[in-house]
Amino acid sequence: MKKMKTTPADGLVNVNRYTIYAMIPGLDTYVASKLDKKKFASIYTGIFMVGILALTGVAMYQMSIDSMLNSEMDKTEKADMAYEKFIPQRTVIILGSIVIHIPIYTHLVRKWAKEWNENISRGSKK
To answer: Exposed site from 17, 51, 72, 122, fewest CB < 10 Å?
Structure first.
């Protein structure tokens, strides 16, 4: 399979379209590469994912020390109780991270697109 290579945009970009793209997984990387911010966007996303994993780890640790799960239950009952407790926590972590990530990333993309357009405009006036 041939790998798609993205290069920075040649001219002005549509700020509103790029803002919408920033909200769609997969297209957010495309937008960052078109605005020549792929490295920064990758680092930001990596740090954000590490945070999500850390929160998930904390939730799992809390479950592992739960006294109700350490009692004399058979494995099926323990698994059912663990899923009842962990699934809602994991859902909150994922939804919460999406609610935080999308506005921040969208704001950054709007800012980058405006800066890109300003730099292109300045370059063509000289």
So the answer is: 72
Total-model pTM: 0.72
Q: Quick check: 109 pLDDT over 80?
A: yes
Which of 97, 96, 112 is CA-nearest to residue 40? Answer: 112
Does residue 48 carry a pLDDT above 60? Answer: yes
Closest CA to 13 of 125, 126, 112: 112
Bigger pLDDT: 17 vs 80:
17
Q: Is 28 exposed, middle or buried (0-12, 13-18, 19+ CB in 10 A)?
A: buried
The two counts, helices (H) then strands (E), for the chain are 4, 0
Determine the Cα–Cα distance for residues 126 and 109; give it in Å rounded to an integer. Answer: 26
Which residue carries 């109780």 as its tokens? 81
Residues 106 and 37: their CA atoms lie apart, in Å, by 13
End-to-end CA distance of the chain: 42
pLDDT of residue 73: 65
Closest CA to 123 of 1, 23, 6, 9: 9
